[in-house]
């Protein structure tokens, strides 16, 4: 699983081999089964809270990462 938790990591100009598709495809080709990235700007504190809960849910087995 790869998590890109910086704001707007899911944005980009869509051109052949570039942008979101290119980034997603690059991770997929290296064997990444799960990719999490944001499509908009979000405040730091709320992002921290979300990511802490996200990882806790994965660790507890309540959430499947695939």
| Total strands | 2
Taking all residues together, what is the mean pLDDT?
A: 77
Give Rg in angstroms. 13 Å
Beta-strand portion reads 5-15%
The largest pleated sheet is described as: 2 strands, parallel
What structural class do helix, strand and pairing data support?
A: mainly alpha
Estimated helix fraction:
40-55%
> In whole angstroms, how far apart are the ends?
8 Å
**Main sheet strand line-up:** 1-2
How many helices?
2
The global form is flat
H/E element order: EHEH
Uncertain runs: none
Summed up, what is this model?
The chain has 2 helices and 2 strands; from the N terminus they run βαβα. It is mainly alpha-helical and 66 residues long.
Strand and helix layout:
Layout: E1 2-4, H1 19-29, E2 35-37, H2 44-60
Parallel strand pairs: 1-2
Could you explain how this protein is built, in words?
By secondary structure, this protein is mainly alpha-helical. The chain contains two helices and two strands, in the order βαβα. A two-stranded parallel sheet has the order 1-2. α1 (19-29) links the parallel β1 (2-4) and β2.
